[in-house]
Recover the amino acids of this structure.
């Protein structure tokens, strides 16, 4: 069974395997939301994924089809590679594979996010208040395919405290040019400067424990200074 999609005089055939691939991707997103105890809006998320993918396809590549400087910086900032391991990998792995890894990491940030309506339902407020909170740094959002998305890492399962405490100060410390996937990686990865009982914890866990957001701010400020 196939369907045809026409766009700008180009006809695309949507085959069963394409449809199954989309369903597989959405199923993975459903699992992400379920683990976070959240409701999702698959249609809105799918639109963001498709548009973000289209934007990535149009990004300028360096000579020979390798990574651009921005893509290399993104892979390092996100924690996927160190500068040394990226250089080693570039020497031994096809550059197309590295670009695919960067694309996958970016799209994972979308699957781990909510739309404004979903955030409103979780917080028990209307969508206009969601945007107001975001404008006041009470929520972090990023644009994907022309749609505003809210990462799930900033929300908690607690009804009494549905948003991470101290999040406003942390949001203000995010470098303007840092990709949301890089921010997600830092916020959810144990950091050497965040110790609880001699155990490294992530910024998310640190804030959930009621610790000072300044320690998390310091991490992002150190990135700005590097």
């Amino acid at each position: 069974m196939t369907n045809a999609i026409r766009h700008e005089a180009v006809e695309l055939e949507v085959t069963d395997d394409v449809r199954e691939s989309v369903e597989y991707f959405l199923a993975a997103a459903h699992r992400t939301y379920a683990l976070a105890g959240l409701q999702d809006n698959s249609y809105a998320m799918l639109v963001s994924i498709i548009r973000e993918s289209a934007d990535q396809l149009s990004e300028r590549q360096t000579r020979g089809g390798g990574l651009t400087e921005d893509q290399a910086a993104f892979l390092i900032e996100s924690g996927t590679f160190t500068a040394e391991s990226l250089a080693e990998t570039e020497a031994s792995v096809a550059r197309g594979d590295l670009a695919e890894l960067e694309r996958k990491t970016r799209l994972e940030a979308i699957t781990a996010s909510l739309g404004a309506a979903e955030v409103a339902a979780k917080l028990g407020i209307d969508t206009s208040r969601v945007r107001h909170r975001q404008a006041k740094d009470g929520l972090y959002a990023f644009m994907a395919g022309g749609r505003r998305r809210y990462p799930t890492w900033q929300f908690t399962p607690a009804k009494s405290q549905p948003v991470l405490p101290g999040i406003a100060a942390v949001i203000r410390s995010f470098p303007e040019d840092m990709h949301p996937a890089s921010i997600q990686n830092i916020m959810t990865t144990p950091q050497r400067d965040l110790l609880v009982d001699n155990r490294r914890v992530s910024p998310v866990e640190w804030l959930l424990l009621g610790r000072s957001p300044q320690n998390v701010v310091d991490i992002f400020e150190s990135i700005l200074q590097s």
In short: The chain has one domain: 3-225. The two ends are 54 Å apart (CA to CA). Residues 28 and 84 are 32 Å apart (CA to CA).
